[in-house]
Write a structure and sequence with these properties.
Helix content: under 10%
Strand content: 35-45%
Length: 110
Amino acid sequence: FRNQSLESTPGPNSSENRPGIEVCEEPLCQFDLDELKLVAVVSGDANPVAMVEDRSGVGHVVRRNAKMGRQAGKVTSILRDCIVVTSFVKGPDERLQPNRQNLCVSTEGQ
């Protein structure tokens, strides 16, 4: 019996294969942000909470710093009727640039 060191080979979504880009394996990271709908926000507290619904109608509770979206974005702010999701993308100069997207409660049907 020889003692061998086993090295794991990074998978295709590994951060080793995408330097500077964070990989997210949370359930909400399998959706594009435009596939998610903000349905409720509970604010007025030091720790606001929001609920988003995926395309299947399943609700997900999110708090600040929750990861969501295929770009491994992070909820950076929860406002009265919107959440702000910030991801980082490479700009033309190959530097990471913040990309902020708002997901707001829809007033359709009201």
